[in-house]
Amino acid sequence: MQIWGGKNFIVPSYQRSYRWGEREIQALLQDIWDFAQMQNQSDFYCLQPVVVKNNKEKYRIIDGQQRLTTIFLIIKFLENKDFFNISYETRLNSTDFLKNIKDKTQEEIENIDFYHFYKAYEVIQGFFNNESIDRNKFLEVLLDKCKVLWYEIAPKENENEVFIRLNIGKIPLVEAENIKALFLSKNDELDSDDLKDRAELWYRSEIEARENRDFRYCVLNKINKKEDIENKILKDDIQRIEAYLKSLVPPSNKKHYLFEYFYKCYKDGTLNNQWNELENAINTLSGFASGQGNDKIDREIFHYLGFLILSGENIYSLYKEWKNDTNKELFSQKLLAKIQNKISKIENIEELQYKKDDAKIKEILLLFNLEYLICEESSNEYFKFNRFVLEQWSLEHIYAQKSESIQGAIKGKDNKSIIQWLEETLSYIDDDMLKQEIDQSIKESNFDDESFKKLCKKINDNFENDDTLHTIQNLTLLDKESNSQIGNQIFSQKRKAIQKLGEQDKLIPIATRKVFEKVFSENKSNPDIFEQKDQEDYLAAIKESLKRYTKENK
Asked: What tens digit of pLDDT does each residue of 530-554 get?
């Protein structure tokens, strides 16, 4: 490792920035420490290869950047010195952040690159906080007994092509990286300034794709439920830019179809034309998906695009519609026609049943929210598609009379809350016999015997068997976490809980807020009850709002 001392490394513009996570860092640290403790130790421990190109005393890193940066951070933590130097062709501020990372705080994390540096440093710090790890011994082994497979390509070799060859066949995550390397390859038509401009546009597009809490990415690219939702985050910059690449390439189920398309263009000499197309796509689509337009037409395009992407449309076909005639009014009408075609296939929305028709009901309610926002021009509020997907919004009963909501009150002998639940339940039940039993239970107020348990079961069964309570007129959208917390509460309790969640900056779609405020109800005299007439008024509001999307307006 001593051979690296004082060397200057540069990360080329076609490379992505540092992205190693805890798993990779811990593995490297543990491997070195395991070697340090071996009794029959070999002469040296061999790390994975580093591929570089020598460029006037600066080594351009083609492969091994993640490992090299991690070693830099390890030595920085143990000795607080720069054992070698790393600079970045595009991300100029990253060098300074790395050099001074020991003094940085969480508040100084300005971008996603700094975030990953900082998190890596925290992992390293945590590893050495273990008292069983001898820091001096670890450093000695790292510097004196760790060797790297060093591969220096020939001066005439094209480093971009070497990078691509090394990365072809790796996991899909790096597909956009390989495409970036293609676009930044030198050729007779491009000089160094052209390549610099391309690198800066790519990087700027990565940064801007993260603005507005990922509105851009979510409106243009369908989120991978398994990976993105389970991790509760959206993938970082390199993957968000794929939305623009996808807009240029016909969709395919074939693995690495994007890279193969652009690689063919690279081979046949048409890649520069593709770059011009990509610039146009970035400029156009980033504007449509930014959520920053003030005109109604901008709001329509933003919300239509988001709805269609969530419904399974691909950005290639949508962008193709735009390129056929670059007129905003016409484009908005084309998107509207696509939505009308989808929604008109859903007939008799009042008959859709909870569970059986969940996907259709969710689609209708999502569109209801979007249409409400489109029409509310004065607020200029945009739907937060990213949070809607990542927080796993699902259907929730507006009124639910299940007894699970009072189990805590029963255990705590909170008779007041139990009686409140029984009295509200009375407002919804048509069964006279059951009503009499509830009245009698309220009078006796004996809620810890077997007879009350049986009454609760009858009330629950009544709710389950009442079909009207499981149709769209009694359903709204709520995120998974809130749903699990307040799902079984009665309307009055839910209303207060949702109001509180809104005050805590929890995302509550506008129609969900309004239905619990009884905005759609003609009779607002009792804010704590959501009766049959309230349900009918809510259904009427949905139908009226969505008239231009349904067969009624065809």
From this structure: 888 999 999 999 999 999 898 555 4
Higher local confidence (pLDDT), 173 or 20:
20
Angle, CA of 168, 171 and 176, to the nearest 5°: 70
* DSSP reduced 3-state for 491: helix
Q: How deeply is 260 buried, as exposed, middle or buried, from its count of CB atoms within 10 A (0-12, 13-18, 19+)?
A: middle
Element spanning 201, H or E: helix 192-208
Q: Report angle CA 155, 156, 157 to the nearest 5 degrees.
A: 95
Do residues 281 and 248 make contact, with C-beta atoms less than 8 angstroms apart? yes
**DSSP 8-class letter at 228:** I
- CA dist., res. 259 & res. 170, Å (int): 12
Q: What is the pTM of this model?
A: 0.75
Can you spell out the DSSP letters for 239-307? HHTHHHHHTTS---SSTTHHHHHHHHHHHHT-HHHHHHHHHHHHHHHHHHTSS---SHHHHHHHHHHHH
Question: What are the tens digits of pLDDT across the range 305-320?
Answer: 999 999 999 999 999 9
As given in the structure block, the two tokens for residue 179 are 């495409």
Structure confidence by residue, pLDDT tens digits, 389-417: 888 888 988 877 666 767 777 787 888 88
Contact residues for 241 (Cβ-Cβ < 8 A; gap 6+): 176, 202, 205, 206, 209
* Spatial separation of the C-alpha atoms in residues 437 and 460, rounded to whole Å: 14
Burial of 139 (0-12, 13-18, 19+ CB in 10 A): middle
Q: What pLDDT is attached to residue 209?
A: 79
Who's near 471: CB < 8 A, 6+ residues apart?
350, 351, 352, 353, 354
Percent of the chain with pLDDT over 90: 37
Confidence of residue 226 (pLDDT cuts 50, 70, 90): low
pLDDT at 401: 65
First-to-last CA distance in the chain? 73
CB 118 within 8 A of CB 109: yes
Going by C-alpha positions, the residue among 173, 168, 178, 151 that lies closest to residue 14 is 178
